[in-house]
Amino acid sequence: MKTLAHWLPAAFCAFLSILALSLQIGTDSGAWKPAFYCFLPMCFVFVGMATSAMHREIRELRGQLLELKQTRVDRPDGI
After folding, report:
1. Tens digit of each residue's pLDDT (9 = 90 or more) over 61-75
2. Structure pTM?
3. Could you tell me if 12 and 42 are in contact, meaning their C-beta atoms sit under 8 angstroms apart?
4. Are 5 and 50 contacting, i.e. CB atoms less than 8 angstroms apart?
5. Which residues have a Cβ under 8 Å from the Cβ of 6 and sit 6 or more positions away?
6. For residue 79, is it within any domain?
7. Among 32, 3, 29, 38, which residue's Cα sits nearest to residue 18?
8. Is residue 17, in this structure, part of any structural domain at all?
9. Is 45 part of a structural domain of the chain?
10. Residue 40 within a domain
11. What is the pLDDT of residues 16-34, one digit of tens each?
């Protein structure tokens, strides 16, 4: 599921683009434009959420690594 989350923004952008292109070709009215432009910022929200989750995981892993280094230094046998 984690690898799928990174591709979700790109899939959403592709879906919006295909939808906008098909509606533009199918009709001459501009009825598709408000929906397209209103949902376009969601692409950036999805990218931000995925990036934020990756940074949070990296911070947690760095914290765990620091704890492991500290416990290794604090051990008297040095192992």
Report:
1. 999 999 999 988 877
2. 0.57
3. yes
4. yes
5. 50, 54
6. no
7. 32
8. yes
9. yes
10. yes
11. 888 877 777 766 677 777 7
19 close to 32: Cβ distance less than 8 angstroms: yes
Write the secondary structure of 8-74 as one string of H (helix), E (strand) and C (coil).
HHHHHHHHHHHHHHHHHHHCCCCCHHHHHHHHHHHHHHHHHHHHHHHHHHHHHHHHHHHHHHHHHHH
C-alpha R_g of the chain: 22
Residue 43 · residue 12 · CB < 8 Å: yes
Amino acid at position 60, single letter: E
Give the chain's length: 79
The DSSP letter of residue 76 is T
The domain containing residue 33 runs over which residues? 2-74
